[in-house]
Fold this protein.
Amino acid sequence: MAKASEIKVGNILRYNGELVTVTEVLHRTPGKGGAFYLDKFRNIKTGKIVEARLATDEQVEICRVETNDFQYLYEEGDYMVIMDNTTYDQHNIPKALFGPAVKFLKEGMNVIVSFESEEPIMATAPNHVELEITYTEPAVKGDTSSGALKMATTENGVEIRVPLFVNQGDRIKVDTRTGDYVERVK
């Protein structure tokens, strides 16, 4: 247990029985009454923002979270199987923890997973991945209006919009947070 005055942005707390990450800490000293903290927490499971008013000496539970690099091995139903790079232990991580970036994961890719007492609570894919284009329509000559895009299918079956000069067999870099084309890889 720790005091509310010891909370820092980025800490993970157990607040009202839920795991939350601290996004904002404001110290207020009104003219009348004692000082207090106005904190904003983001619920790790639901993503919902919660505001809390805590007295400076109020007790809160700061959770011990271990964050490590893991290697993504394969998909198994609603889970992604990952392996610890040092101990070679394997863990099943729910796909939902990766969010929309899960569709860009390739076997052998490194991911970051956070555990709180043996339970996975957060998972992060790399910000950018390199994928090969397996199918795309050929560009039509003269169809070169500024910023023209066409649909392309990547090696893991994801369809994204790419510029007209990208052809089948090219390797491209994709932003996993937005799903957008970044650049062609040489």
Summary: The chain is about 0% helix and 55% strand. The chain has a mean pLDDT of 88. The radius of gyration is 22 Å.
